[in-house]
Design a protein that fits this description.
9 helices; single chain; mainly alpha; globular; 68% helix
């Protein structure tokens, strides 16, 4: 079981940097909520240029976050490899089937999630399935789905870079810093899972719930099953981002307004009454 190595000492400079980054992650989601509402209004008015601009802005923001992560590590008074996720992968298997099943369950769930996304991406070429999926997503989320290959490429790149950056922030900065404050992995996992759920504010309650659940599982895996190995969250969220990119490929050219329901023909008898067809 992984507990915080005594070698890590953030020092005053790294502590201030980490707390500043934490404040940004608390304040930014409500601001992004306002931004996405305005972006959806632009899309509803037929102006989609802001979608690609938002992806580009996210890339610049990710670059700034990576620089902050580097400053945090560089200014720490004392830091070891395990503190920032550079330990080699070594699975600490639990005793019993239940414990080992808990270790494997997040990866099984990720495989199911990826399969569903890839399947939805392929079926989205069918307008009936695509419209049904859009209704399940809700108009707010469906409005920002990629309308062409350019939007999908920028979206896939933005998601991949932002998730990689978020892994670095959460596991290289927040995790060791929170371990100094709490001294035990359990409250750290809970606090960071809640923070990562908060980061998806405005994407719908279902999305927040799914992302929070995934985050908690990956954090728990990092804390107890494969301690101090950054490869675990990088691989997990890399597969997640790839599955989302595959799902987005089937949405080219789709808008709610462009969908035409299938034509239904009603046959009338001699008296003008509808004829009931077999099986209906």
């Amino acid at each position: 079981m992984y507990f915080h190595p005594p070698t890590f000492d953030p020092g005053p400079a790294a502590t201030l940097i980490g707390l500043g980054l934490l404040l940004a992650y608390v304040v930014l989601p409500p601001l992004m909520l306002v931004f996405h509402r305005r972006l959806r209004k632009e899309v509803a008015a037929g102006r989609r240029e802001g979608i690609v601009r938002s992806y580009r802005a996210a890339l610049w923001l990710s670059l700034a976050e990576i620089l902050v992560v580097a400053l945090f590590v560089g200014s720490a008074a004392s830091v070891g490899a395990a503190d920032i996720g550079l330990s080699p992968p070594a699975v600490q298997w639990a005793d019993g089937v239940f414990g080992n099943g808990a270790i494997l369950f997040p990866w099984l769930l990720l495989a199911v999630f990826a399969a569903i996304n890839v399947s939805n991406g392929r079926k989205a070429a069918d307008p009936v399935h695509r419209a049904a999926l859009a209704r399940s997503l809700g108009p707010a989320q469906a409005a920002l789905m990629p309308a062409d290959g350019r939007e999908n490429r920028w979206g896939a790149l933005g998601l991949a870079v932002s998730m990689t950056t978020q892994v670095l922030v959460f596991y290289v900065v927040f995790y060791p810093l929170f371990m100094v404050f709490f001294g035990d992995p359990l409250p750290v996992v809970v606090a960071l899972a809640l923070l990562e759920t908060w980061a998806w504010l405005g994407r719908g309650f279902g999305t927040m719930l799914i992302m929070g659940y995934f985050s908690a599982m990956v954090l728990a895996t990092y804390a107890w099953a494969v301690p101090g190995c950054l490869l675990v969250p990088l691989v997990f969220w890399g597969v997640f981002a790839g599955a989302n990119a595959m799902a987005g490929r089937g949405w080219y050219g789709h808008t709610e307004e462009s969908y035409t329901p299938p034509l239904e023909v009603t046959v009338l008898d001699a008296d003008g009454d509808p004829v009931q067809r077999p099986g209906r």
